[in-house]
Amino acid sequence: MLKERILDVLGEQQLLLPALVNTALGANDRVKYYFSLLQMAIAHAGSAPPERPDLRGERLTAGETDTALDTVIAGTEAAGPGVYRVPHAEMIAARIENAMREMLAPLVATGHAEAERFSGRLDHLLGDRWLAGGLVNAHAVAQMTRAAGDAADSLHVLVMELHKALNVLQASIASDNIDGARVYGLAGDDAKRVAAFMKGVNATRALKFDHPGLATTATRVGPRLVLQNDIGTTEAHVLVIHIEELSVSLTYTDVHLPRLMFLQSLLERWNLSWTDTRSRSDAEFAEGIYHISTGVFRAESHAELDAYLAWLGSRLVFLIDWNRARKRMRLLVPRNEAIGLLRWAADNDVGHMAFLRAGGEQAVFDALASLGKAPASFGARLDDVLGRKGAVDFLRFALRISAEMLTGGKPAGLVLDELRGELFGRFHSVQQTVLDHASEQAAISIEIASGVRDCLLMRNSADASERFARCALRAKQWERRADELVNLVRELAQHSDHAVSVRRLVEAGDDVTDALEEASFHLTLLDTGMLDRPGLDHLVELASLAVQGSQEYLKAVEAARVVQRGVPRADVQDFFESVHRIVHIEQRSDDAHRAARAALLGAATDTRGLMVLTEISRHLEAATDALMHVALTLREYMLTEVMTT
After folding, report:
1. Is this model's pTM higher than 0.70 or not?
2. Could you say which of 29, 270, 378, 416 has the lowest number of CB atoms within 10 Å?
């Protein structure tokens, strides 16, 4: 064990090791600052002064006290192709070497297996002259600060490897444990601050399941308490916290800029002051670039300080495998919705790891397939089936139920059952809502058709004209309500693509009410002299058939509520018989319409009267024709969308 080896090698000098490690960790912060300082100086040489940063915040965070370094970027000038005159360059070079030897010191002292190799690499890399004759070579600086070493080694690569080895060493010499954090060398109220941070970490730790990450170490380095959390397993995914009195400085490094911005959004309630995010290009590093940002929070009291630390600790679990979760969510919904869902999952302390463990997007597609609702084409998403709002609502359910079941010890297979049940309920709810509207629409058709029929039956009454006017007014009011039902279904279809397939049902039903309302309107154009003409009995028959057809359609809609795969045969038979009777009524209506036209033309005495009566006949026949169309539309929907699932 490393700890036993340390005791054997150091003997009574072992107490010096924590100080060496602390110094090395401080040197790690400083050398990274020096790298950034050189990169920014070269990048901004020649730019206008207001555009030149000074990296003062990064300097203070790194523990570098020399204020002269704040003038380096502003004072850098081009001195020829690819070379620059950088203020204090010789001093920066010396400090880079000193810092790296400080990082190496505790590894040499403990006889670390890689110490000799690290030392040889450092000597070799320091021989690569990026500074000669007082001038800085931009290409050599770029090589020195490379963050990946697949093609060539670099000082930055060595710094990262030394830092990793120091973290392991630091954990091995920790002399105490505070709620899971390995700590040593604490002083004053440091233990309270560590406990506050770990309270947050442990509050949400279970949401990472068995994924590695969240190991925390803490120590005091000079005036500052330093905490480090490994978050996950990626080397460039680093979180370092410096606490000095009531001020907390958080330095975060990530290869994924969206995740860095995500962390910033999780902490926005605390109003941190963030430095500008610095992006470093490197073609061989992950996706070609990595990003660094520092956020400072200044508390008003120790109670507020501890509350912030707890909140910060509780948010870290939501960064683990975040990018993988984002990519898989994007297979289900658009990019903005995917990130919004991950933010919702963090805000509600359910996270995304449980959803990934339960199968992620594949579990959703499997649930859709089991209900016969899978997207029709390759590359289609969940919002193609449920609509954007419906997809987001469902995925919130999926994230929550996954976390609840898996943290409760339930097997992942049960999550799929829950997803199937929720999807079925959503599809069933949409279906029932549309059928509710179709049922009301059918009732409206019955009311208007009955009004036309009754007016024609009472055409010889003394108040026939007034009766016709009242009938037309009521029909207009009913027709407006029918239009509202169509708009409701169209709005529903905007949020649920499942409603699109049944929207045409209500749109077709609207043709029935429109035709009947037109027939009712034309009644008001009848003069009393037209009411005893031959052919009016055929109009009564047409109106009666429209009433019967509307009644049968209402029966069909109500029967459709209970029709699905596996229902009793009698229920299915009731549905199809209603549809069949509507088709038969439409055929009878055709015959009545022809008979009415023949009778009206045979007794025609004036053009106006003939036109009005013919229009009434035509609209009544159109209503029964539309009833047949909507009934067949309902039949097709039930056969293809309901009874097959």
Report:
1. no
2. 378
